[in-house]
Write a structure and sequence with these properties.
The chain is an alpha/beta fold. It has helices at about 20-35, 50-65, 70-95, 105, 125-130, 160-170, 205-210, 220-230, 285-290, 320-330, 355-365, 390-405; strands at about 10-15, 40-45, 100, 110, 120, 135-140, 145, 150-155, 175-180, 200, 230-235, 250-255, 265-270, 275-280, 295-305, 305-310, 335, 340-345, 370-375, 380-385. The strands form 4 sheets. The protein has an 8-stranded mixed beta sheet, sandwiched between helices. The protein has a 4-stranded mixed beta sheet with strand order 5-4-7-8. It has a 4-stranded antiparallel beta sheet with strand order 13-18-20-19, with helices on both faces. β7 and β8 (about 150-155) form a beta hairpin. The N and C termini lie far apart (about 70 Å). Mean pLDDT is about 95; it is low at about 1-5. The site of aspartic acid has 13 residues, from α6.
């Protein structure tokens, strides 16, 4: 009988860029085998190869500008299914015994919110049975099955969530998220060359970074990890396996004692957002309309009859239909702004005083970057700015908060 207490189980997740072609896929198979040879039980969660998900979405949009969400899920889950089968074959080629499973076969049960489903339960019986047989289990990320037995997907970047949920259900030692970058940086290293890898992060810091647009870890996955107390190791697929101190060459996300309150840990941005502004017409009917179209908001500000809402385009698949519905219900009272992006600085307690807001706003103004709206929470300051200036703003805020000695605040 399988006894999880005696085994050390490692869950590893490999992102799309790590399995973009056959050579990379073979490298991943080798890394999995090296982990196995260290004496662990290994469960591998894999994303669709390269840009497969984007390509499938493009294909869907060519057929329908408002693709049906259920059909979209049937289509998109195919991407991970291809990757899981090929990876399992590659592992077998190296002498490993492996078996691949879809999300539904792995026991990932979700709600029925197609294209953006939430995991409600994991019943990993088949995974456990295969581990007990000594096999490596390869799981298609980003997907599950609703309690109505329909295939669902977990929202963009959802393979991370599959991995963390599986790690929690199996009682894994940790969940490794392997990518083309060797951890979480103080900003996207592709945008800010001076960005530094952060050795250790708390769940809260990581969740805020992810929600602000740092793609390296999925926000829902971090939320799940926090809830279940799973340690996440963010690492490079091409780098070494975790040693005694995994924060030395990657990022460890777990419960951490708070940093010096007020420390900015990172800068993140999101370009692909739309802002919905309602002048009068009532917040309630607007929110009801958005819920009916499964649109989830990121930031909401309501005051009297005015409401402003930031919506990420990431999981918005029926934009045309939503825009038409908004126009016919609210007419001129509603405005959809498609020229802005969000730039945020993140850190626990950074808004204890207004010093950081003032410093960031002053830096943006002095660089001629107009920020129309600022929003704060206890972990974050977000400036809405012209989309074309987002990268400049990220570099500037990184310099201001993470490179320079703080200048006196004007
Ligand atoms: P995967 O395909 O492995 O899931 P993603 O593309 O989802 O990888 O995430 C990795 C990318 O996230 C990196 O290539 C990097 O450009 C980007 N990124 C954005 N913000 C950060 C950050 N703060 N730290 C590290 N990488 C970041
Ligand atoms: N393939 C999916 C996506 O591109 C899921 C993932 O990569 O995590 O969003
Ligand atoms: Mg990802």
């Amino acid at each position: 009988m399988y006894n999880a207490a005696e085994m050390s189980i490692i869950v590893q997740k490999y992102g799309g860029s790590s399995v973009a072609d056959v050579t990379k896929l073979k490298h991943v198979a080798d890394r999995v085998m090296r982990t196995r040879r260290e004496g662990h039980d290994v469960v591998v969660v894999v994303s669709a190869m390269g840009d497969t998900t984007d390509d499938l979405l493009d294909l869907a949009r060519k057929v329908s500008p408002n693709p049906d969400r259920r059909e979209l899920d049937m289509l998109l889950t195919a991407g991970e299914r291809i990757a899981m089968a090929l990876l399992s074959m590659a592992i077998r080629e190296l002498g490993g015994e492996s078996v691949s499973f879809t999300g539904s076969q792995s026991g990932i049960i979700t709600n029925d919110r197609h294209a953006d489903a939430r995991i409600i339960e994991v019943r990993p019986v088949r995974v456990q049975d295969e581990l007990a047989r000594g096999r490596i289990v390869v799981i298609a990320g980003y997907q599950g099955m609703s309690y109505k037995r329909e295939v669902t997907t977990l929202g963009r970047g959802g393979s991370d969530t599959t991995a963390v949920a599986m790690a929690a259900a199996l009682g894994a030692d940790y969940c490794e998220i392997c990518s083309d970058v060797d951890g979480v940086y103080t900003a996207d290293p592709r945008v800010v060359p001076a960005a530094r890898r952060i050795g250790t992060l708390s769940y809260e810091e990581t969740q805020e970074l992810a929600e602000s647009g740092a793609k390296v870890l999925n926000a829902q996955a971090v939320e799940f990890a926090k809830e279940k107390g799973i340690a996440i190791y963010a690492r490079a697929t091409t780098g070494p396996l975790p040693g005694p101190d995994p924060s030395a060459d990657g990022t460890v996300v777990r419960k951490h004692p708070p940093r010096m309150p007020g420390t900015v840990v990172g800068v993140a941005s999101e370009k692909d957002v739309i802002v919905i502004e309602l002048r009068d017409g009532g917040a309630a009917p607007l929110l009801e309309l958005l819920d009916r179209h499964r649109v989830s908001g990121k930031q909401l500000h309501a005051a009297g009859d005015r409401l402003t809402l930031v919506v990420s385009r990431e999981n918005l698949h029926e934009e045309e239909r939503v825009r038409t519905a908004l126009a016919s219900r609210f007419g001129d009272a509603v405005k959809v702004i498609d020229t802005l992006g969000a730039t945020s600085v993140v850190g626990a307690g950074i808004n204890a005083s207004f010093e950081n807001v003032r410093r960031g706003s002053a830096a943006l103004t002095s660089a001629g970057i107009d920020s129309g709206a600022v929003a704060t929470s206890s972990f974050r300051i977000t400036w809405m700015i012209d989309r074309s200036r987002i990268q400049d703003a990220v570099r500037l805020l990184h310099r201001t908060f993470l490179e320079d000695q703080p200048p006196p605040v004007p």
